[in-house]
């Protein structure tokens, strides 16, 4: 249950981050609302997850896996480029999240 809340929080953080670009400095109403809903929902879900999971693990997974998913989404949707350094950073994020749960 706690990990479900955490992954829900990660998903909603990615939703908020994705719509930041489309909000265009908060000039576009619907994307701006999605940013607010995404980030607020994310904070609520992660707060609930932290009642049952260690702070360090929860925050590292939330930040790390949220970053990973946001970068992947940016590459797919916005055609942002990856180079070896960025790929190495993403691998390090995922390995760090795995090692924190061992």
Automatic annotation (TrEMBL):
Pfam family, one: Multi_Drug_Res
Domain of life: Bacteria
Main location: membrane
Gene Ontology CC: one annotated term: plasma membrane
Similarity remark: Belongs to the drug/metabolite transporter (DMT) superfamily. Small multidrug resistance (SMR) (TC 2.A.7.1) family.
Topological relation to the membrane, as annotated: Multi-pass membrane protein
Gene3D superfamilies: 1.10.3730.20
Cited SUPFAM superfamilies: Multidrug resistance efflux transporter EmrE
GO molecular-function term, one example from the UniProt record: transmembrane transporter activity
Transmembrane portions of the chain: 6-21, 33-53, 59-77, 84-100
The protein's name in its UniProt record: Quaternary ammonium compound-resistance protein
Cellular localization per UniProt: Cell membrane
Entry keywords, A to Z: Cell membrane, Membrane, Transmembrane, Transmembrane helix, Transport
InterPro entries: EmrE-like, Small_drug/metabolite_transptr, Small_multidrug_res
């Amino acid at each position: 249950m706690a990990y479900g809340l955490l992954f829900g929080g990660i998903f909603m953080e990615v939703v908020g981050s994705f719509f930041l670009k489309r909000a265009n400095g908060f000039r576009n109403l619907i994307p701006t609302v999605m940013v607010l809903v995404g980030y607020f929902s994310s904070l609520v879900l992660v707060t609930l997850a932290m009642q049952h999971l260690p702070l360090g693990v929860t925050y590292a997974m939330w930040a790390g896996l949220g970053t990973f998913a946001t970068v992947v989404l940016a590459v797919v949707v916005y055609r942002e480029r990856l180079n070896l350094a960025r790929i190495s950073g993403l691998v390090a994020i995922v390995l760090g999240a795995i090692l924190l749960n061992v």
